[in-house]
Amino acid sequence: MRQLLLFVSIILVGVLFLSRLFYLQVYTSNEHDLFNNDNAIRKVYDYPKRGFIYDRNGKLLVANQPSYDVMVTPREVKPLDTLEFCALLKIDKEKFIKTYNKARRYSPRLPSVFVSHLSKKDYAALQEKMRKFEGFYIQKRSLRHYQTTIGANVLGDIGEVNTNDIRRDSYYIMGDLKGKQGVEASYEETLRGVKGIKFIQKDRFNRNIGPYKGGKFDTIPEQGKDITITIDAKLQEYGELLMQNKRGGVIAIEPSSGEILAMVAAPTYDPNILVGRERSKNFTKLIRDSIANPLFNRSIQGVYEPGSPFKLMNALIGLQEGVITPNETVTCYAGYKYGNRFMKCHCYIGRRNNLISGIQESCNAYFATTYRKILDKEGNASTGIDTWSKHAKSFGLGNFLNNDLHVGQKGRIPDRAYYKRIYPKTFYSTYTISNAIGQGEVATTPIQLANMIAAIANRGYYYTPHIIKSIEDKTLPEKFTKAKYTTVDKTHFEPVIEGMLQVYKKGTAASLQVKDIDICGKTGTVENFAIIDSLKTQLTDHSIFVAFAPKNDPKIAIAVFVENGYWGSRFAGKIASLMIEKHIKGEITRKDLEDWILRHSLEEEYAKPYSGEPFRINAHTRLQLVDDSEYKRLKRQLNATLQNP
Amino acid sequence: MVRDTNRHFKFDWITIILFLLLVGFGWLNILSASHTGTDIDYFTFSQPYGKQSIFILLTFCIIIVVLGIEAKFYERFSSIIYIVSILSLIGLFIFGKNVNGATSWYAIGSMTLQPSEFAKAATALAVAKQISDLNTNINNIKDQIQTFVIIIIPALLVLLQNDTGSTIVYGAFFFVLYREGLPKYYLTIGVSVIILSVLALKFGILITSIIASILILGYYFLNRSKKKVTLLQSLFVLLLSIGVSFGVKFFYQNVIPPHQQDRISLWLRLEKDPVKLQQMKKTFAYNLNESEKAIRSGGLNGKGFMEGTRTTGKFVPEQHTDYIFSTVGEEWGFLGCSFVVILFVLLLLRILHLAELQKSQFSRIYGYGVASIIFIHFLINIGMVMGLIPTIGIPLPLFSYGGSGLWAFTILIFIFIKLDSNRINEW
């Protein structure tokens, strides 16, 4: 039986080994971790070209520029001619030693950036000699190259992804670039393309030793697509020029298509400052400016009470609901009395206004009466306000436009449910009378208002305002090409449009007429408040203007908001007229308006709330002129825009 | 002439085929583990796999020589072979070349030779000769001591050269001696000491003592009526056991070098602190950790020949030598590993079977020695690579890279094949 000891031992060990192997390789195997957790394989990404951005006339706005970083892998560095190398890189020897030691501390085996963002010229000189410097190599990266200084809020910028971006979309890895604002963000997937992946086999020192399985799993990058946006660079540039030294937003839409022609937010910045080495510093500066807030896109994010332009809406609802007729008149007593309260108006006492003159003179009494008639039509303001709300919302107000802009705001069109909180039981039309003149609870963004004007210009329908004109080979989605009808019949628009025309002919914007163009517009002067030292303080009114032109074949619908610009035609109206003339004629005949706008600034007005001093508003303010050097600068800029083809 | 051709057919072809399969499959894995770049130069001195091909070619010359020599030669000259082998080991103290802390190599130009590999075969011959001697009785203490001395001299010499792994291999002769009639208490004591050591290190002396008391006193009380053992005897054994436990603990803490302490601590999972465990993975446990990872990543079918990412990336140090089995694990998976394990088991059982068939006592004992030596290598190497046994650096026979090892095992096995082929002529 002594023979059995070794025999049994051999069998036992064999069985033991097979069980252990089964445990390791079948039961707890990690073979499927190949692409995710195998530190023997490195994924190297091949980044495609990011798509270019063109304006509606085919002008290139955003392209790419190569950027060259000199990388170093300290372990592989062989003795070199440091003098020559430093001269090529334009650094001194101390800097060389410092950077080299830093890279070595980080990792002797992994590459670190030695000098970043070499100029093209330095790169060319260096590349010739690169073979002499073992352990160093040049890494090419792609940065955005803006061909313009305008449209920062439209175009946006790209920046490195953060951990949230990666969690939301596993496509990204640390260090990837992603659109952060503007069309760069909203058309990120189109512009970026799809990066290719190469699987590289590495050794235990993390060095590359060739493609994994001969590149069987590698993918080729898919190039980013070029896009054309609806922005007219010339109009945009002009709008930005006019809005200098002011704050607010200008948005112009082509009514027949919903294409956004211009989207100005002021103040703005030069998009080039967010490229390259200075990006981080400049971005911090922009985002920390909580007063001027240049990253805040006022034309689509700014929520303002719309003021008088909203009277147009009330007129349309009144006509649709049949509570007013165009010729019916209302007598104004320089205001409107309701209960024991009084709403002032600019009309002289006893003026009788019909719909057209009501719009023309922006008569508060007329629209207060109209608003009450709408709400009280069925004898119950609760159902009345819901009807009113429904009509207003059909113009795209009070909700997201659901378009292709990266940011947006809902604004607010109140209904009974909204007021339930404030007035749980009784509810009368007079409670909300401010809505009649576009104050109170209604709130809109400039783009919503411009879209409302586009719907009026189209006599009853609109196209969702959008910024994409075309993407290489793709057709636009239906939501941008299909008209959306309002709940107001076509016939009711004519009298309102006639009123808007009269605003220009003899009403509140009579001084802004442009020869040969029938502009239909409406001024707005909106009271607004700020909390200063926990006190609600009234500031100078916002200057607002909406318009479309020409009357019979609308080419442009525009909304202009100038914060604290006082009355509607003072700043906003002038800018709107100039923009319309620029778009339709291509040149400016109202040089006087242009000059006035360039000469005047509102910076003093904006400084007031932060001065800590008591200040006066509206009629008690004086107009601020820009100084000569600033005026000359603006003029030079203006001339430059004229010279560029 | 007719007799000569006949004789060739008497070689045990099953053993030869198993041998060739292991050497061939081993070479494929050495190629995979040591290959760099894209070109394969099959016979080059600059790459381990190229060297190994040359070693394998030389192996065939050795086989021809070993099989060509008259079988009687091995028995007659076993003492001389043994003495030459011992002298070559002693010579290392003067002429030896130090590699990885062990002075086990003679350097002849770019070639190195490791005499300790050949000493195993020489010792197997000497042991077979000693026990098969008509004057030797293994139950006789004096003869036992003589035999032990034959085994201990080379074992001690390699230990002094810092080659602990090879020393342990000499324990293989226990199987041989036991087969030939070594008293049973050697087995009992051996197994008891191993169990006591593991228990003492893993659970501490107190628990070990309690377990030993229960077992020994329980055995006594159950067999009291049969008068097999006295209470005094039982108490003596118990005291001895507790003494062994203390001894082992003392030995572990004060005698053996720290790196071996670490290996044992790792094997018995004595360290519980996760921070220190993480630290271990980066230091002395790195090899084992990487080799286990490579084996696990192979899964059922493996990643394919030359396609193991961890092998190609050289993640497992010493992969073409002691850790060659992790390459099999990664590239050939569970199926390939099972194939290797089964090949070894078949080879061992075949040699064992042939040994039992021998009519000459010398051949049988030698065959047993061959099987035991290969078995210990197989057990320790594969056990270590899979983390079943503390890290002990010895190669996998016929598989691992290295000329000395390959030739030594070739000689070891083919002497037996020669002896076996001769068994019919012996009558």
Give descriptors for this structure.
A: 645 residues, alpha+beta, Beta-lactamase, six-stranded mixed sheet, B: 427 residues, mainly alpha, three-stranded antiparallel sheet, 3% strand, disordered N terminus
How does this structure look, described?
The complex is a heterodimer of chains A (645) and B (427). With 645 residues, chain A is α+β, with helices and mostly antiparallel strands. With 427 residues, chain B is mainly alpha-helical. Chain B has helices spanning 2-9, 13-34, 48-68, 71-76, 78-95, 115-132, 141-160, 164-169, 173-179, 184-203, 205-222, 231-255, 258-267, 274-282, 286-298, 309-312, 324-357, 361-385, 403-421, and strands at 97-99, 102-108, 111-113. In chain B, a hairpin with a 2-residue loop joins strand 1 (97-99) and strand 2 (102-108). The longest helix of chain B is centred in the C-terminal third of the chain and has 34 residues, at 324-357. The radius of gyration of chain B is 23 Å and the shape is globular. The interface between A and B is large, with 37 and 47 residues.
Show the helix and strand layout.
The complex is a heterodimer of chains A (645) and B (427).
Chain A lengths: L3 H24 L6 H4 L3 E6 L6 E2 L5 E13 L9 H8 L3 H14 L5 E7 L1 H10 L6 E11 L5 H4 L2 E3 L2 H6 L8 E3 L2 H5 L1 H5 L3 E7 L5 E4 L15 E3 L3 H10 L5 E7 L4 E8 L12 H10 L9 H4 L7 H13 L8 E9 L2 E13 L1 H7 L2 H12 L5 H13 L22 H5 L25 H12 L3 E2 L5 E4 L6 H4 L2 E2 L7 H13 L14 E13 L2 E15 L6 E7 L9 H14 L5 H9 E2 L1 H9 L12 E2 L2 H16 L2
Parallel strand pairs in A: 2-10
Antiparallel strand pairs in A: 1-8, 2-3, 3-4, 3-5, 6-7, 8-9, 10-16, 11-12, 11-20, 13-14, 15-17, 18-19, 19-20, 21-22
Chain B lengths: L1 H8 L3 H22 L13 H21 L2 H6 L1 H18 L1 E3 L2 E7 L2 E3 L1 H18 L8 H20 L3 H6 L3 H7 L4 H20 L1 H18 L8 H25 L2 H10 L6 H9 L3 H13 L10 H4 L11 H34 L3 H25 L17 H19 L6
